[in-house]
Amino acid sequence: MLAEADGTVPHGSDSSMRTSNINNNINPDSSILISRMADVVIPYSSEVPCDNNGQRMWWAFLASSMVTFFGGLFIILLWRTLKYLWTVCCHCNIKNKEAQKVNNPANNQAADRAPKGPDEKEEAPANEVGWMTSVKDWAGVMISAQTLTGRVLVVLVFALSIGALGIYFIDSSDPIESCQNFYKDFTLQIDMAFNVFFLLYFGLRFIAANDKLWFWLEVNSVVDFFTVPPVFVSVYLNRSWLGLRFLRALRLIQFSEILQFLNILKTSNSIKLVNLCSIFISTWLTAAGFIHLVENSGDPWENFQNSQSLSYWECVYLLMVTMSTVGYGDVYARTTLGRLFMVFFILGGLAMFASYVPEIIELIGNRKKYGGSYSAVNGRKHIVVCGHITLESVSNFLKDFLHKDRDDVNVEIVFLHNISPNLELEALFKRHFTQVEFYQGSVLNPHDLARVKIESADACLILANKYCADPDAEDASNIMRVISIKNYHPKIRIITQMLQYHNKAHLLNIPSWNWKEGDDAICLAELKAGFIAQSCLAQGLSTMLANLFSMRSFIEIEEDTWQKYYLEGVANEMYTEYLSSAFVGLSFPMVCELCYVKLKLLLIAIEFKSEQRESRLVYILINPGNHVKLQEGTLGFFIASDAKEVKRAFFYCKACHDDITDPKRIKKCGCKRPKMSVYKRMKLACCFDCGRSEQDCSCMSGSVHSNMDTLQRAYPLSSVSVHDCATTLRAFEDEHPSTLSPKKKQRNGGMRNSPNCSPKMMSRHDPLLIPGNEQIENMDMNVKRYDSTGMFHWCPSKDIEKVILTRSEASMTVLSGHVVVCIFGDVTSALVGLRNLVMPLRASNFHYHELKPIVFVGSLDYLRREWETLHNFPKVSILPGTPLSRADLRAVNINLCDMCVILSANQNNIEDASLQDKECILATLNIKSMQFDDSIGVLQANSQGFTPPGMDRSSPDSSPVHGFVRQASVTTGSNIPIITELVNDSNVQFLDQDDDDDPDTELYLTQPFACGTAFAVSVLDSLMSATYFNDNILTLIRTLVTGGATPELEGLLAEENALRGGYSTPQTLANRDRCRVAQLALYDGPFADLGDGGCYGDLFCKALKTYNMLCFGIYRLRDAHLGAPSQCTKRYVITNPPYEFELVPTDLIFCLMQFDHNAGQSRTSLSHSSHSSHSSSKKSSSVHSIPPSNRQNRSSKTRESREKQNATRMNRMGQEKKWFTDEPENAYPRNIQIKPMSTHMANQVNQYKSTSSLIPPIREVEDEC
């Protein structure tokens, strides 16, 4: 009811009386009724029955909320009290009954046996769930976010709460209390609907609450008490009171929970940030609402006369300046309630402002700057680079990947790493912002993989930390990255770096890992050891190969210094390009010569695709020889200085470019030649071979022209033709069938008198077509001399104790022409992987007598750990000691070695980068400071039989044609060939004391690296980008440096972790027929005339035509350009010199030699000749000497037949070529297993005998280990 000053009017009085009273008191100029007291202004409308005296009813709204709250609280407490009393009483009765049962057990038993009366009810099951519990569980599910309905309900309640808060903001512009008609006030209707929903939700929450008391005191419950009941009072009284509706702002505290339910917030930082912001804002808005209420209402005890008109947003402003302790004073509280509230609010608000705001700013500032998502660009590929992302690794990668010599790199690089970049790395990204983007995240997180669009990436590159202390742990991390990426997108191409070779086997366990689809693992330990091993065969080769696959810019030097020629070669890189159809039908040496002379390109290999439908394998043939004929679409591997230069091989047209002398003018021509027929290709190749024009060539008669179709059917042209062109054409003229027997091939000149023609596709020699008893003996005896793949020499596993040499034994065994490996390591050191160093030195394309003995000098404890991977290789010895001991070095005759390799397994265990290579540097300087006697001169003066191998000028092995260089007398350690492995590139300055290298000079510009005496693993970083642009490059490099490691071999090593011996079969023996790297001397031999002032191009053509040797570089004395004699023996590398480059007699030429089947004959080494003097030494004789008993076990018949055959071979060869002398018989006893000959073997032998008189004898017999 409404209270008036002079009486009361019941609420239910007549409406006409109320209307008349209101009309009588209306001011005609205003619709506002001013009471007599002039202290309260209550706006009302004439259509709404309201108190004409303007008396306020705020206490009714407040009372509804207070009664609801305290009434419910009283009922809950009363219920709890009654329940407690009931529980206590019942508990006492139960205790008394239990005590009676304990005191009278006999009565209890009698009572239990007595039958129960029909009126006694059975006790209900204790586990039965009542309906109240079911309702409670249902309500709990409804208000929780565990189900879709619950999530929808929770989100809806929050949204309606924010909507109710918005209505409050709208109504705050009106007076605090006013008369409103519910049926005409739209906002009141909406607010009523919201509060009805809140009331229902409150009931669900109450039912689901386990503790009703705590539920009643919750913040959300208090908000409902002071906001829901006043709305119903407003409808009843037709009066609106703004009141405590501002408490709806407290619902903002649940904002983070709602976002978590919607899976919008997932990280702890984002959740914390939203929590802080929601608490701060809700507290701020709620306090502003209270100030707005009391300041616009006034103090009740002051009869509301001290009120002031403030808008809600002015109160928000007041609270902010108060919390921030600024207090401008333009707005302040006038009421006592307002000031009292401000006193307490300053205490809490100031503390909240001082703690929350800095934390919010910190979270916002620490928010991931690189936390966005990559947006793919149409028409532009992108790659993802992850793993070890540092300034050094990224700069090296970008420098090579974005090199200007690459032809238009339209690839965007996306780096993904879980640590934000530092300032230097960030600056590097900004310098390449057009092609580089960085995102913070982990490849182990699928969400981050989705951010960088890994499913649409062209490839994913994983970098490894080459300097980590635990290589196995680093490899395990990268393998997990591969698993995560392949699990997210199995089709993605992955190129990853691996540190240890044995960890590559784990990649094969990943089902989606497929090297045939472009997945590659670049094993740094394998390639590093392979590069060093190739330097043992041809010193300086590691530098040349490292420069070939690294992108280097050309640096022009005017002065005539060794750096000028070295840097000209450094500018060359390795590229691939498809060969023009003008080369179709030509042999590989012809194409190679034409490319070098005409196009100024060096072709070193081609890609061969098997024509067998069941295999469809792709091979890379390195300098395959003249038996290879090119077909359409052959991919070539070139050495050139620019990708644009290689395009000449694709654009070359004989009709348009035949008379062009400047290779730069060879560009895409306008003519479109018709596809050359098979007959035309053969004729062109034949005419090119015989050196005549097409009109003058008499290779064909006129009858051939009329039978073109027959020729094409009879002789389809393949990428590797087994006949040369003239033979094929003559065969067609003689009307031979499409397949010729071996005899008819010989009669028509199908096989040249050269070891370079072959009736096989992949081999120039079919072992079944080789005369002599050795081949049949090899097959029948089933002796294992090679591994199961035929790529490496093999011997039965040996115990490490049998290969250990003492210092005295090593001194007695006069070693020479060997490889000394100085290794630093102990029991705790990480394994270097010495097998990768030994495998290239035991490749099967070397004959047994050509294998260099290997002597390891180092800790025996460490070598025992490595021996498991070395026990199947022949000619391996161990001298326990230390590389820093000169006595140990003299014992192994380090002055007579072909190469000294210095390695360390302790490099990554030192934090100081400058000290990582201290052991290798000390060992290098120790060797260089040693002095020796003229051992070679003494040996030559004493006895020719004691001359170490390779030292005799008259020895056929020393012939420069076969790549062997005579060793000069070494009297000082500085002349010993050494290659030192370094971890830190800057430490290269300590290896040579006479150079002028600056510490900041790049590694490839330093003298030790240019000379091939230093190698660092950092040069292998370029292989990542090189492999991405052309995966065949990695295959070619691995083929060159590993000695023939294949994916099949890796699979076998993954199974057994050791090489497995295999019987010699035609297939495995054919695998020996592959080229190898050697060094060609110019001071003697058939090229001596070119050594003094000749042109490199003439040497290139002569070596290619005469011996099928492909030259690709020079190893020149450092001071050779001075023209005067010099004491310096240092040499440097010149890669791919131009045609007119002048040669000097002291030059050594890098070349790719063909495998020589006729060289399977041995030299007599020092230990072989003196086995009688050292037979007392059991270990020494087992390694280097031949026991006399071995020869006595041979049958005289076999010996006589071999001697007769050797004589026949030498008579046939004459004096044109000097081959090696006969290879020694097996150095160790062996058990021969005689097996019956199968029918297939008999047929092969008959075929073999039918051609024995027509093919030059070529031996395949090798001494077993």
Question: What can you tell me about this protein's structure?
Answer:
Residues 1165-1185 have a biased composition (Low complexity). Residues 1-21, 103-125, 735-758, 1162-1227 are annotated as: Disordered. Belongs to the potassium channel family. Calcium-activated (TC 1.A.1.3) subfamily. KCa1.1/KCNMA1 sub-subfamily. The chain has 1265 residues and is of the alpha/beta class. Among the domains are: 267-367, Orthogonal Bundle (Helix Hairpins); 381-518, Rossmann fold; 1075-1154, Alpha-Beta Plaits. It is built from 47 helices and 26 strands. Strands 7-6-5-8-9-10 form a six-stranded parallel beta sheet. The chain has a six-stranded parallel beta sheet with strand order 18-17-16-19-20-21, sandwiched between helices. It is elongated and about 130 Å long.
In short:
This protein is an alpha/beta fold.
Approximate shape: elongated
Under CATH, the topology of the domain at 381-518 can be stated as Rossmann fold
Cα-to-Cα separation, first versus last residue: 119 Å
Number of strands: 26
Instruction: Tell me the strand percentage band.
Output: 5-15%
What top-tier CATH class of the domain at 381-518 fits best? Alpha Beta
- CATH architecture descriptor text of the domain at 381-518: 3-Layer(aba) Sandwich
Low-confidence stretches: 1-41, 44-48, 114-126, 672-781, 940-964, 1161-1265
What does the main sheet amount to? 6 strands, parallel
How are the strands ordered across the major sheet?
7-6-5-8-9-10
Chain-averaged pLDDT: 75
Strand pairing plus helix content: what structural class? alpha/beta
Count of helical regions = 47
Instruction: Tell me roughly what share of residues is in helical segments.
Output: 40-55%
Integer-rounded radius of gyration: 47 Å
CATH superfamily of the domain at 381-518: NAD(P)-binding Rossmann-like Domain
